[in-house]
Specification:
It is found in: Cell membrane. It comes from Thermomonas brevis. GO terms for molecular function: amino acid transmembrane transporter activity. It holds the Pfam family LysE. This protein is an all-alpha fold and 197 residues long. The protein has one domain. Helix content is 84%, strand content 0%. The chain has 10 helices and no strands. Helix 1 packs parallel to helix 8, helix 3 crosses helix 6 and helix 4 packs antiparallel against helix 10. The longest helix has 32 residues. The radius of gyration is 17 Å and the shape is globular.
Length: 197
């Protein structure tokens, strides 16, 4: 095992997991609206869905995705539309004072969303393309990536849910709730531009 490759792939897993993206925005919003405990199914669904996507890309699905630009474009459009839907819900809830969602996003819905999440695809394609080894070492290097994204990715995305939960008390003030909800709506909506670029 190459220590430099391990260090580089660990750094990639950490940085790509902890930076803002659709999953982390959903986790922060859910933590804010429902608290950490009720956000756990969403958190675990995101992690499980991402790990399944990583394995699917490693097994060859990424090749189809790379060869057919129309599939990539369709996924980007659907992912951007879902983000706009979330942004609209956040903006509307900040105007009416209601919760952004009636209930937190569940495990299976969060896991399924990874198929539409452009950042998750980019992370998986980049990780498999850059940090796996050829030949007999291929699958051991894939499993090493899966382990790294679990050990480093899960705590990274958990921070976003904790961050949202930490501000839950301030969210009880209607004016603060309106401002925070609209700020999250704008950031979520703006992330559509990054998805479509």
């Amino acid at each position: 095992m190459d220590v430099r490759l391990l260090a580089a792939s660990a750094a990639f897993a950490l940085v790509s997991s902890i930076t803002p993206g659709p999953n982390n925005l959903m986790l922060a919003s859910s933590g804010l609206a429902f608290g950490f405990r009720r956000t756990l199914p969403l958190l675990l669904g995101v992690q499980a869905g991402f790990q399944c996507l990583l394995l699917a890309v490693a097994a060859g699905l990424g090749v189809v995705f790379q060869r057919h630009a129309e599939v990539q474009w369709a996924l980007k459009l659907v992912g951007a539309a879902y983000l706009l839907y979330l942004a609209h819900g956040l903006w509307r809830s900040s105007s009416t004072g209601s919760a952004a969602m009636d209930r937190p996003i569940g495990f299976f819905k969060a896991a399924a969303f990874q198929v539409l999440n452009p950042k998750a695809w980019m992370m998986c394609l980049s990780a498999v393309g850059a940090y796996t080894l050829a030949g007999a070492a291929y699958w051991p290097s894939v499993w090493r990536l899966v382990a790294l994204f679990f050990v480093l990715g899960l705590p990274s995305i958990t921070l976003w849910a904790v961050f949202g939960s930490a501000f839950r008390a301030a969210f009880q003030n209607p004016e603060t709730a309106r401002r925070v909800g609209r700020a999250l709506a704008v950031v979520t909506g703006a992330s559509c531009l990054l998805v479509l670029l």
